[in-house]
Write a structure and sequence with these properties.
The chain is α/β, with parallel strands linked by helices and about 300 residues long. It has 11 helices and 7 strands. The strands form 2 sheets. The chain has a 5-stranded mixed β-sheet with strand order 5-4-3-6-7, with helices on one face. Strands 1-2 form a two-stranded antiparallel ribbon. Strand 6 and strand 7 form a beta hairpin.
Length: about 300
């Protein structure tokens, strides 16, 4: 049973790693778990979770007699209910980092419930000293997370990683799909042939970089209103405040994430520039510094009389 309790520290570390991936700036450095729909623009929830798991690890190491059977059973019920409630709030999109954190939380309380606590604490250090160390653990972990997040932000690393947030690549054909616009207009990949080109942009309502990218894309789309180009934003939900940020483009709701899966999108925002032959010309993840000029340069021009303002 004592060996089983040693797994609590391992599970706590795994949960801390998952929460670290949910810090706003972390995914932009490592290129994974970028801006899932549950990812907040502020780091409060990951920081609270980091403090919580740091406390659990410290308690497991410093207080082997914790918890009692009643506390362990109550903690297990609480962890299961918390996982169900927070996961339900994010449906139909699930975040792998969140699921890992919930799984670790449930397993920790399951071990505490199933493995009897030590009758006597085999610790030479005084109780007060162990208590101070336990309180210091969450403060230290939250400070570490905050410092790393600020470091990533200050050095503006969000646009410096080379990994694309999709499994597709330039030159690939657009996946076969059929979807409906909010006005109940059917849109399929065969409709691309009737355009001069199309821009498909995957965003999320809670993605801070999507809010930075959408006005830039909207300014580009506004200069193609007299052409046969189409600009389409795809989001898991369409709150009015999100749609207003790109009113010159069309919007499609991908509530069940089917289009996101077809385009193998793993992070937001991810923008696809597609030619009339349904081949992907360019993939732009995140918010590059020269996004506007890059789009106006790369979009193939097939209509005369279009004035491009690259300011």
């Amino acid at each position: 049973m004592k060996q089983l309790r040693n797994w609590i520290s391992i599970l706590g570390i795994l949960a801390l790693m998952a929460l670290f991936l949910k810090m706003p700036e972390t995914p932009n450095v490592f290129g994974i778990f970028k801006c899932e729909t549950c990812a907040p623009s502020a780091p409060y929830l990951p920081l609270i979770g980091a403090g919580y798991f740091a406390t659990l690890v410290a308690i497991s190491l410093l207080f082997p007699a914790f918890p009692t059977s009643l506390i362990a059973r109550s903690g297990l019920i609480w962890s299961v209910l918390l996982a169900i409630a927070l996961t339900y709030m994010d449906l139909p999109v699930w975040c792998a980092a969140c699921l890992m954190g919930h799984a670790c939380n449930i397993l920790i309380w399951t071990i505490w419930w199933g493995a009897p606590a030590a009758i006597q604490e085999a610790r030479a250090s005084p109780f007060r000293e162990r208590l101070c160390l336990t309180l210091l653990a969450p403060i230290t972990m939250m400070a570490l997370f905050s410092c790393l997040n600020l470091t990533f932000l200050v050095y503006n690393l969000k646009a410096k990683h080379d990994g694309l947030a999709t499994g597709l690549k330039p030159g690939d054909a657009v996946p076969t799909f059929t979807t409906l616009s909010p006005e109940n207009h059917t849109f399929t990949n065969s409709d691309i042939a009737a355009t001069a080109g199309i821009v498909i942009n995957f965003v999320s309502p809670n993605c801070p970089y999507c809010k930075e990218q959408l006005p830039i894309l909207d300014a580009v789309a506004a200069q193609f209103t007299n052409s046969s180009y189409r600009f389409i934003n795809i989001s898991p939900s369409l709150p009015p405040e999100l749609v207003e940020q790109s009113s010159a483009a069309e919007w499609i709701e991908d509530r069940e994430g089917k289009l996101r899966e077809l385009f193998k999108v793993s992070g937001y925002p991810t923008l696809f520039v597609i030619g009339a032959d349904s081949k992907i010309l360019q993939i732009i993840p995140g918010v590059p510094k020269d996004l506007k000029n890059d789009l106006l340069t790369k979009l193939p021009i097939s209509r005369k009389g279009i004035y491009f303002d690259t300011r």
